[in-house]
């Protein structure tokens, strides 16, 4: 029985990572008739972000809180210098190798790895190879570069 539960949980985690199944924005912010929504990371159209080598597909965003969920794509070799975010960010690496670190150390994170970045933490980010992540926050995304 425990093995079946572990296999089911693993299958669900892999499905979410590969397919990117989430509920629509309306279901997250309390609409009266929520509808399921499916977004496939390698089939959606990404829009460039202000940071070179980074593009994003916003799955949902809330005009009330600024909260969002998105697929974010980093081109191989992208490096974003030391910075912070005003709000917590949770992410799962879907494909490729994501780079995350502080001023002294950098780690390579591969597909299936979850990363939580608390607000105010100084860190670097980027990609060793082309990389897609799923990220989510309960508040608006921002970046403050550290000089």
Descriptive key words:
147 residues; 13 strands; mainly beta; 2 helices
| Neighbour order of strands in the largest sheet | 3-4-5-12-7-10
Distance between the termini: 54 Å
Structural class: mainly beta
User: Biggest sheet: strands, sense, closure?
Assistant: 6 strands, antiparallel
The average pLDDT is: 82
**Total number of helical segments?**
2
Count all strands and give the number: 13
Using the alpha-carbon principal axes, give the shape.
globular
Into which percent range does the helicity of residues fall?
10-25%
Low-confidence stretches: 1-33
What does this structure look like?
By secondary structure, the chain is mainly beta. Helix content is 15%, strand content 45%. The protein is built from 2 helices and 13 strands. It has helices at residues 2-19, 25-28, and strands at residues 21-23, 36-38, 47-48, 54-61, 66-74, 79-84, 89-95, 98-101, 106-109, 114-117, 123-127, 131-139, 144-145. The strands form 3 sheets. The chain has a 6-stranded antiparallel β-sheet, with no helix packed on it. Strands 9-8-11-6-13 form a 5-stranded antiparallel β-sheet, with no helix packed on it. Strands 1-2 form a two-stranded antiparallel ribbon. The longest helix is centred in the N-terminal third of the chain and has 18 residues, at 2-19. Mean pLDDT is 82; it is low at 1-33.
